[in-house]
Write a structure and sequence with these properties.
The complex is a heterodimer of chains A (about 220) and B (about 250). Helices cover about 65% and strands about 0% of the residues of chain A. Chain A contains eight helices and two strands; from the N terminus they run αααααααββα. The interface between A and B is medium-sized, with 35 and 32 residues.
């Protein structure tokens, strides 16, 4: 990558794999459970977090030297909340349809621990450009897991992807359903996400043993 | 910079300034965008109402598809012939009755206070549609919708929406495969206004039986489904005096 120095590139690459916010840092699990029943919702959530974390990290980084240490968490919350509200209002005015799909996620974004975690752990101690890359990297790492989980949950739970019936029609028994296949209703309830995330963690750690924590 | 960010006075001043800056920024954005947001919400209501009476752009079995926002105003005035507000069995015409806040009106009427209950009458292909607004609660938050019935008290169409039901589960109440099931169901059982129940295990997933006052429930969304059942019942209770006058005509 000629565009980014090696160190900067790692800021984006690390969270995608070896320092993934969900599978390694175990942050943002709550929203990963709540919204991954459908692939579309996962993608929308991933994009929303990408925006909020990218911009929020820069804002926090810019004002990092004037934030009073005693109320820094509150300042971080205010930044996230205002960003999310502004985005929500702008969408409502200019892209009403999209805003309706997104409205469920507004609250989830504000309370997403990844955002507060990156503000606290990175943006408060680093410059705006680095913070921006860190924000994008972590949001992508979060998004990748969300999409993987959403893919399996929607496919196995509803037999669809992005709402399209890829396995045939369960009611009129076409495609896979004609040979006795059934949707697994368990996959659309939130605990199924934990199992899928667990499997991802397992696969990841068995491929890279350095990630296994000492018991 | 030689600012001492540890001092209490600094902390207080920072907090005050932050609140003022952020507060005015948000207020500025919100009031600047309000006219556009209001307009969008008005169009949405019109689209929902027209949807409930079967005026939409649905194709095949696909997704819900409304009349486009650019045409919705014209079509709304074309199809909706009367806008009424009800007080008991009295019905009075009122302009823009569809903009009345349904949540408040229903709550007031339920507690026995005087309230203006909106009711719209539409006409399509020579048939009359009585469009009743509904409001209730699902699992997480509010659910609402519109139901259109003909003079014989048979449902001609419904539209449901929700604020925060679970994606993939309760949120599916606004999908075609759920809403289309209501078409053709009667809200009457003999002479009582029972509405339509969202029923688990009624052994009728294709909804061929239109006489049972039941539609097939959504798996994994029991509470949202019960919310829909209750919402229909509540609205019918309040609109019953008026519906009876249509029926006996």
């Amino acid at each position: 990558m000629a565009l980014l120095s090696k160190k900067d590139a790692n800021l984006i690459k690390d969270p995608l794999a070896d320092n993934n916010p969900i599978t390694i840092q175990v942050l943002g699990i709550c929203s990963a459970l709540a919204i991954t029943a459908e692939l579309k919702a996962s993608v929308v959530m991933a994009i929303s977090v990408l925006f909020v974390l990218g911009v929020g990290n820069v804002v926090i980084s810019l004002i990092r030297n004037i934030i009073p240490a005693k109320i820094r968490i509150i300042v971080q919350l205010v930044v996230v909340a205002s960003l999310v509200i502004i985005v929500d209002q702008v969408l409502k005015a200019f892209a009403y349809e999209l805003s309706k799909t997104l409205s469920v996620f507004v609250g989830l974004i504000i309370t997403n621990c990844i955002i507060m975690g990156r503000f606290e752990a990175f943006a408060l101690g680093n410059g705006p450009w680095k913070s921006f890359l860190d924000g994008i990297g972590n949001a992508l790492g979060y998004g990748v897991i969300l999409v993987i989980v959403g893919f399996f949950r929607e496919l196995l739970g509803s037999g669809t992807l992005f709402g399209m019936k890829v396995l045939g029609d369960p009611v009129s028994k076409t495609g896979l359903y004609s040979i006795g296949y059934e949707n697994n209703g368990f996959m659309i309830i939130p605990p199924a996400a934990l199992i899928v995330v667990g499997i991802i963690i397992w696969v990841q750690r068995s491929k890279n043993r350095a990630l296994i924590e000492e018991a | 910079m030689a600012v001492n960010t540890e001092k209490n006075s600094y902390t207080v001043i920072f907090a005050v300034l932050m609140v003022i800056v952020v507060g005015s920024l948000l207020a500025f954005v919100a009031s600047g965008l309000k006219p556009m947001i209001d307009e969008n919400e008005r169009f949405e209501k019109q689209q929902n109402i027209l949807y409930a009476m079967g005026v939409n752009e649905n194709e095949g079995d696909g997704d819900v598809s409304f009349v486009p926002t650019t045409q919705v105003e014209d079509e709304f005035s074309q199809y909706i012939t009367q806008q009424l507000v009800l007080e008991g069995t009295e019905a009075v015409e009122k302009d823009n009755a569809y903009l009345i806040n349904v949540e408040k009106a229903l709550a007031k009427a339920k507690s026995g206070e005087k309230a203006e209950l909106p009711l719209l009458i539409g006409e399509k292909d020579g048939e009359k549609f009585y469009i009743i607004p509904m409001y209730g609660k699902g699992l997480w938050d509010a659910i609402w919708g519109y139901m259109s019935v003909g003079e014989n008290m048979e449902i001609k169409g419904v539209y449901f929406d929700h604020r925060g039901e679970t994606p993939g589960l309760g949120a599916n109440i606004k999908q075609r495969f759920f809403m289309d099931d209501f078409k053709g169901e009667s809200i009457m059982d003999d002479n009582s206004y029972v509405g339509v129940e969202v029923a688990k295990g009624n052994n009728d997933p294709l909804n061929n039986d239109k006489e049972d006052n039941q539609v097939d429930a959504l798996a994994g969304a029991t509470i949202t489904g019960n919310g829909v059942t209750a919402m229909i019942k509540e609205s019918l209770k309040l609109y019953k005096p008026y519906l009876q006058t249509i029926r006996s005509n």
